[in-house]
Amino acid sequence: MEVKEAIGFNPANVGLIEENGVAHGLSYQYNGNGSSKVKLLISPSYQSKTYECDTRVDIAKEFKVQLSPTLIEDSADLDKIGIIFPTEEMNREGKCVKGLTFNTYEIKHLTNAPSVEYLGKVKLQKNINIGSPANDGNNYFQPKAVKIGNGDVIVIVPNLKEQILVSWYLE
């Protein structure tokens, strides 16, 4: 994935995750059609620059608060970041979040600039079959991912449709 110097973003509007001298966050580039490109920010403390990488995901402006980056692995040479993205749908009330995806990115810390590799995504739904009635009308809100002691990840999110908390365990 292409990594370049990030110019023109406001650091005050970015929630950063910082560990071992490297900060990671998300920024948004408005597309002009009601959605924004989501960019992964990488800011090593040993350099005076912040870098960005396009995640290749566009998000409607009303769902920006649904994005949740999580540091899954960190070392001097390599970091892994997981980002929860919503899967949008229209229902009777308007746009809603029907499902989620957990996308993983590997960041290698190199001398000149970091390199980023997309490792893949996991769909998070109540039923793996997208057409299942269990997935109808779901409306998730503000998902959070947490790395647990053994390195695995738990994703937790309220389902507004059923007024319950839903979670997934990712190895």
TrEMBL record:
This is Uncharacterized protein.
